[in-house]
UniProtKB/TrEMBL annotation:
<feature type="transmembrane region" description="Helical">
    <location>
        <begin position="81"/>
        <end position="101"/>
    </location>
</feature>
<keyword id="KW-1133">Transmembrane helix</keyword>
<dbReference type="Pfam" id="PF06993">
    <property type="entry name" value="DUF1304"/>
</dbReference>
<protein>
    <submittedName>
        <fullName>DUF1304 domain-containing protein</fullName>
    </submittedName>
</protein>
<keyword id="KW-0812">Transmembrane</keyword>
<keyword id="KW-0472">Membrane</keyword>
<feature type="transmembrane region" description="Helical">
    <location>
        <begin position="6"/>
        <end position="27"/>
    </location>
</feature>
<dbReference type="InterPro" id="IPR009732">
    <property type="entry name" value="DUF1304"/>
</dbReference>
<feature type="transmembrane region" description="Helical">
    <location>
        <begin position="113"/>
        <end position="129"/>
    </location>
</feature>
<feature type="transmembrane region" description="Helical">
    <location>
        <begin position="56"/>
        <end position="75"/>
    </location>
</feature>
Length: 130
């Protein structure tokens, strides 16, 4: 189950790196507008600083998850799993907040939270059966 958890943590990390790219580097592009429902240039400019900052939150969570994979693969499993759980658990918590507070964004919340959920479940099972 540890390997399964690492795979899902990697997928979650990669997805969050992509979200970072959309929010921090490609904000205002056709792809980011479609993904986040930004309708016009004024809305892009009003939300640019917020999106830039939010993108970095996503990047830092991805770094924690990916660093955890590297550390676990290098032999420090307890530290690696801890880092993966911090990263993916935070991703999952953010997805749950979005799901509960924004009914119109439930599809996005599900997309954002699926890999972290599967990572957390797999990693906790790996810890329990150990």
């Amino acid at each position: 189950m540890l390997i399964t958890g690492m795979v899902f943590a990697a997928l979650a990390g990669l997805l969050h790196v992509y979200i970072f790219w959309l929010e921090s580097l490609a904000w205002g592009s056709a792809r980011s507008r479609a993904t986040f429902g930004v309708r016009n240039d004024a809305e892009v400019e009003i939300t640019r600083a917020f999106a830039f900052n939010q993108g970095f939150y996503n990047l830092f969570l991805a770094i924690a998850a990916i660093l955890g994979i590297v550390v676990a693969a290098a032999g420090s499993v307890a530290v690696g799993v801890t880092l993966m759980l911090v990263g993916t658990g935070s991703m999952l918590a953010a997805a749950l907040v979005l799901f509960v507070t924004s009914p119109d964004k439930r599809r996005a919340a599900t997309t954002q939270g699926l890999f972290p959920l599967l990572a957390v479940i797999s990693l906790v099972i790996a810890l329990v059966i150990g």
